[in-house]
Amino acid sequence: MSLDERLDKAEEMIQKPSFRENKGLGNEVGYYIFDYPAEKELYIRERIEYIKKKSENSDDDFKVVVFDLYDIMIDILIKKGYLEKCYQFEKTKGFERVSKSISNMLRITSSDSLIVNHIRDNTPEKAVVFITGIGKCYPILRSHTVLNNLHQVIDNVPVVLFYPGNYDGQELVLFGEIKDDNYYRAFKLVD
């Protein structure tokens, strides 16, 4: 199946009330991953924007809400006055240290993650959440960490992570090369 066909099928799926009310085995709303070749990133962004705008202009009782993890991360750094400090810190201490510092400041691995809180606080009752930008955040954010923390706070609407890499139902491989931890709680949105 081509990428266009997979995107058409994904769009068709989120339109169905049964998808938005989908309860998993533990009575949880579904978490999904839509994987795609990393080189198609710009095309995926355009298509997501199209789906979002279409949702805004429809009479449906739900909205597609898109959260770009990179944009959220940068916004938090700006609001806290840390962005410029990060540039200086990277020059003196290196990328690995600044990456770890940003991760700590954002409380990435905590159930009180600033990014997860932002998504929770900005998700309406009737929505389908699209998570994008995970590739732009590597290595500061890891997809399995974001999804695990989101699972703890968002259980009333479906969540779709758009993933520039491969997902086989268990293993996440960013850009088709970097293995992330295994993740078993999400379904592949479209094979």
Topology:
Layout: H1 3-15, H2 17-20, E1 31-36, H3 41-56, E2 63-68, H4 69-79, H5 83-93, H6 95-105, H7 114-121, E3 127-132, H8 134-137, H9 143-153, E4 159-167, E5 171-174, E6 178-182, E7 187-188
Parallel strand pairs: 1-4, 1-7, 2-3, 3-4
Antiparallel strand pairs: 4-5, 5-6
Tell me what the structure shows.
The protein is of the alpha/beta class. It has one domain (3-13, 26-188). 47% of the residues lie in helices and 20% in strands. The chain is built from nine helices and seven strands; from the N terminus they run ααβαβααααβααββββ. Strands 1, 2, 3, 4, 5, 6 and 7 form a seven-stranded mixed β-sheet that branches. Helix 5 (83-93) runs antiparallel to helix 6 and helix 7 (114-121) packs across helix 9. The longest helix is centred in the first third of the chain and has 16 residues, at 41-56. The radius of gyration is 17 Å and the shape is globular. The N and C termini lie close together (8 Å). The relative contact order is 0.20. InterPro entries: BrxB (IPR014858). Pfam families: BrxB (PF08747). This is DUF1788 domain-containing protein.
